[in-house]
Predict the structure.
Amino acid sequence: MFALQGRQFGRRRVALAVMALALLAGAGNASMAVAAQGAATPTAAAPAIKAPTAAEIALGRKIVVDSRLNVQIQATVALLMDQLVRNTSVTKPEIVKPLTETLKELQPQLMKQADVLIDKTGKAYAQVLTDQELKDVDGFFASASGQRYSKIQPLILGVLGQAMVPWRQQLTAKMMDDVRVAMKKKGIDFN
């Protein structure tokens, strides 16, 4: 296990962080797909992308940190390091100890890569939110409710991640059943 800012991340916690990032990335991809195709519904207009100021980018980055999304991004680096050690323990167990030592030496350098994504995420917020919206979001995360939200968000995303697979399977089965019935009413055999 690799420590992150003085804390030890267990595999379960890091796995939940990665699921959360995957869900966020999936939501981002879905949003980008909607934006690329135009609004899916008249009320779901894609946000306008603007050229943000340096102050807006800094505020966007602050939102990433205050919302603790940065912790999820940093945990991904720790997970990748841990995966490298685990994979190597299977293929070349004799070099696990020096590999672990090397990764500990490289950890500060590798964590700087997390900062790259944190900066990009902050810029993304600044590109789609107005200056006032950025201030409002920042104000929320500075409030007691916002801080509580930030602390429980990984738990909620973990629950969502665990619920997503069976929900998706059930939805797919229901969708297929409903489509078959509706197509049959139209005289089309859909099997």
Remarks:
- The chain has six helices and two strands.
- The longest helix spans residues 144-185.
- Confidence is low (pLDDT under 50) at residues 4-20, 23-42.
